[in-house]
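Researcher: Next entry in the queue.
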Amino acid sequence: MPGQWPLDDSKAVWHALCHVQLQADGELPGTQEVNAVVARLAKRFGRTNGAIRSRIRHMHDTSHAAYAELVNCGARQPASNSAPPPPRPAAPPQTAAGDASGGNLYSALRSFRAKRAQADGVQPYHVVHDSVLQKIADRCPTSLDELKLVNGIGMDKMNTYGSEIVRICQESAPARPAAPPGPLPQGATTTPCSKRKTPATGSGTATGTTVAVAKRPSGWPYASSPAPKPGIP
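Model: Structure for this entry, 233 residues:
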């Protein structure tokens, strides 16, 4: 009856659709051939097309009871013995230092995703999809605020994987070179002020410079009065 799946019905759905490759989001493709098979099964078992699609998706999910049911009855092999998944798209070619850094980050993110998928018992694309991984590698977000700007990262993934993704990006981010010193002002020198010699005629000092001061004539009686100019009695 609708709402419960007898084993024979599950086996029939599996044998009819197990050859169809699921899409990246885990759904059956919407081709005319697949739609026809889904409609025929739905009519046969008195269910909706959506129920048939949902059932075949659960049969591919290693964490779902429908998967365990088929494996236990021998209708399908465990995931470890099943046919290998289709090859993933290759990373973009590396043509410069920045591209090489992004490629290394993409590899690190895929390694992290594989470990989390194995630990959680789900398919890798359930963690983060390939296209989203590539966007993260291109942006290299080094904070959660930057990661939020990546299209495809919702709050659930932020809360579950955000901190680890940011940590990987921080470790793979290229070091930024220090800014070169600016040009010196016109007439400036790099010689330290402490090494400048004071002229023998006497000196008065100001911050960062040396100023020559003329000596007063010997015997000039008024210390506060200016010395006479040369040629004036």
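Model: The chain is about 45% helix and 5% strand.
Researcher: Noted, moving on.
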